[in-house]
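To illustrate the input format used throughout this study, we show a single complete record. The first block contains the structure-token representation of the backbone; no residue identities are included at this stage. The design step must infer an amino acid for every position from geometry alone.
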């Protein structure tokens, strides 16, 4: 059976174009002009994927994303024309699975759609919980999903945690931005460095004594980032 995609965009021309082209690509498609109608459609038949415009009338895209994740836990790709990194990254932080900036090439959009659907249809392999990891006085417990700095618990989002853990696996080693994108967000995000920049900023606010003068999470300009042990 064809995969079912719900397109949510207040631009009628965009809705018609996406519905036609996704249909040509073999998907079943429903469309909605606002989030309220889209949530109602999803209650009638659960979509396999939602393409969600961030700039909607009434309930905006970020609020709609929360509802789609809370009520249905379906994958969501943001469609954004704002081109502000905060909109894009905030959407990802709140649980969006990907984003595509308008105007976009149809082949690019289809590639993102296929990648997200593929991730959701492949169950993650079972793995034994990893042992706690220490980098100086910073400790990461992957099994409990907990981080402490000098014994103080730090509350991290899932992406922040994954980014910190990836750096902590190779302390003192500079990891290029594209490598971080591939490991933490997936290969389809390579070439979108602002995702890493913003998460690094948020991480520093939580693990550094002075985020403006970091001593743990360091930038190696033009290359990437590294995590240095402190307090040892």
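Output of the design step:
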């Amino acid at each position: 059976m064809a995969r079912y995609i719900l397109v949510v965009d207040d631009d009628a021309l965009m809705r018609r174009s996406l519905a036609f082209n996704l249909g040509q690509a073999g998907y079943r498609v429903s469309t909605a002009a606002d989030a309220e109608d889209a949530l109602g459609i999803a209650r009638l038949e659960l979509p396999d994927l939602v393409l969600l415009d961030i700039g909607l009338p009434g309930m905006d895209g970020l609020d709609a994303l929360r509802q789609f994740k809370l009520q249905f836990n379906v994958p969501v790709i943001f469609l954004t024309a704002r081109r502000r990194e905060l909109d894009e990254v905030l959407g990802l932080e709140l649980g969006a699975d990907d984003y595509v900036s308008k105007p976009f090439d149809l082949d690019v959009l289809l590639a993102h759609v296929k990648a997200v659907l593929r991730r959701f249809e492949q169950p993650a392999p079972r793995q034994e919980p990893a042992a706690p990891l220490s980098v100086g006085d910073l400790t990461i417990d992957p099994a409990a999903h907990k981080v402490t700095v000098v014994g103080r618990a730090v509350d991290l989002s899932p992406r922040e945690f994954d980014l910190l853990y990836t750096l902590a696996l190779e302390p003192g080693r500079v990891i290029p931005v594209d490598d971080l994108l591939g490991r933490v967000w997936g290969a389809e995000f390579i070439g979108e460095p602002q995702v890493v920049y913003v998460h690094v900023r948020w991480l520093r606010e939580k693990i550094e004594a002075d985020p403006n003068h970091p001593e743990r999470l360091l930038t190696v300009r033009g290359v990437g980032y590294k995590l240095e042990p402190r307090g040892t």
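Structural context for interpreting the output: The helical segments are 12-24, 35-44, 61-71, 85-93, 106-121, 158-168, 177-185, 194-207. The chain has a mean pLDDT of 86.
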